[in-house]
Amino acid sequence: MVSESTVRVASSSWASDRRLDYAFAASALLCLALMAVSAQLQMVAFHVLWLSLSLVFGLRLWSRRGTAVALGFVVVSTTAVLLLTGQLGDEPSELLEVPLMAAVFLALVWHARRHQQMRAALAAAQERERVFMRNAVHGLRTPVTVAFGHAELVRDALPADSAASDNLGVVLDELRRLSRASERLLTLVASDHDAFLARSSFDPADLVESVARRWSVATGRRVEAYAEHGPAICADAERVCEALDALVENALRASALSEPVTLTLRRAGETVTIEVRDRGLGIDRDGVARLFEPFSRPDGHGARGTGLGLAVVRAIAEAHGGGVEARSVPGQGSVFIMRLGAASPPAAAPAHLPAPRLAPQHL
């Protein structure tokens, strides 16, 4: 059972809620005054008052007590004004005007509370899912680590060129994939928590060049970095590196061995944009539309992966106030564009900064 406090709409602050209440009270008094002094504007002011009651309730979602007080005030005050001005005659439509408006408002209240209860139940279910996922991944890490260590010990004891050693190599590769998938699941689960980012001051150009150099050495492939240097930014360097690793891994998997992968960093104010381009098979429009969904693996672009890397990239980019998008032409390759809305560090920048450059790093 969802409590009433759970389904109330959270506002920006208590003061803003109170100001909204005061604004409603002022508008209600103005409408009542118009009803009392102007016969021509009486019904217009009457309906505006009921409309404002509905609008403010939709923004505030008062408690049951607050809703009853507001509704009672409007019913009693509008009925009193109509009686005093002689507008409630013997016609049934005139007699039913106020109760009908009250019934419409109560129907709105019922629907609004039902909607909020459904949202609260959905949020609770999502939180249970996150807790389950986090516990499940933590439960997998220890047995995977133990299995990986024992498999390495067994392979080291076998002849290097034996079939058994080759088979254990396959097992180790799959255990690495499972470990990487579990780490990425943990990243996705933690991405909406306040402590997800550990910001520090660093130069993103140095990070991009370092990522390109590391992947080039590790894979023997040609990875190019074009980095526009400039002031340091305040972001989570480890998370940004994690996102870049996922993008580069994805690009290398989608490209032929002879084709390069290019990383390009550009700046626009406090926004940093990093592009990762491959010259692979490309992705069709339907594939691009679902690229950043967890476990999505479009044909021709990293189909052998876990399907979590690009979802992790999106989570990290959005946590930095940015986003990620993909552009692809089948047969010509793809480019992934990650934007980081990273704020500048609090320390003052040097008076004379080196001129921005686009320096290629062919690795």
What can you see in these coordinates?
With 363 residues, the chain is an alpha+beta fold. The chain folds into two domains: 1-190, no CATH class; 196-362, 2-Layer Sandwich (Heat Shock Protein 90), CATH 3.30.565. Helix content is 58%, strand content 13%. It is built from eleven helices and eight strands. The strands form two sheets. Strands 6-7-5-4-2-8 form a six-stranded mixed β-sheet, with helices on one face. Strands 1-3 form a two-stranded antiparallel sheet. The relative contact order is 0.08.
Indicate the topology.
Layout: H1 4-7, H2 14-37, H3 42-60, H4 64-84, H5 92-95, H6 97-156, H7 163-190, E1 200-202, H8 204-219, E2 223-228, E3 233-235, H9 237-254, E4 261-268, E5 271-278, H10 285-289, H11 309-319, E6 323-329, E7 333-340, E8 358-362
Parallel strand pairs: 2-4
Antiparallel strand pairs: 1-3, 2-8, 4-5, 5-7, 6-7
Helix pairs in contact: 2-3, 2-4, 3-4, 3-6, 4-6, 6-7, 7-11, 8-9, 9-11
